[in-house]
Amino acid sequence: MEGLFQLFTKSIFIDNMIFAYFLGMCSFLAVSKSVKTAIGLGLAVIFVLLLTIPINYLVYQHFLKEGALVWIDASYANVDLTFIQLMVFIAVIAAFVQLTEMAVEKFSPSLYASLGIFLPLIAVNCSILGGALFMVQKEFGTLAEASVFAAGSGIGWFIAIVLFAAIREKLKYSNVPKPLRGLGLAFIIVGLMSFAFQTFLGIAM
Fold this sequence. Notes:
It contains 8 helices and no strands. By secondary structure, it is mostly helical. Helix 3 (35-64) runs antiparallel to helix 4 (85-107). The longest helix has 30 residues, at 35-64. 32% of the residues are buried.
């Protein structure tokens, strides 16, 4: 259990998808102008990660990796389908993003309208696909580890976009020099927040 807690906290603060790997920056920068929309997109990202990473883990373990098909027949022991893992992962992600989009449109039309094109773009959000690829790279031994990693990564992305949106809302009332307005200052803030999150590397896990 201690190992799962360490994995969870590390996924949120140390291996944060935004501040450690800068994955999902397109929607992160575009939707973070309002805390309300940032919360909506952040929850959608958590939802998609929580569903897709465990499913992709099972697909990889039982169908894609070398020797995974041995449960069908011993003659498939040398079959390696990892060369199609990218296409399979994207297909799973796209399917669940479509379900998420339909659910948001039904239960929160105002949020759906405010997110606009960036809700379906979760399907190509680098943090979602990155989570699936990191899941393979980290070689998790159990479904529980993959699920905890998914939860931590999603919550880390959620915290990042909500904090960033809160800062950007406050900046509306600040006298920012004209050359720095917009994305210029946004990139500076992201860099400073990234440095701040890197201080968590000093925590003894």
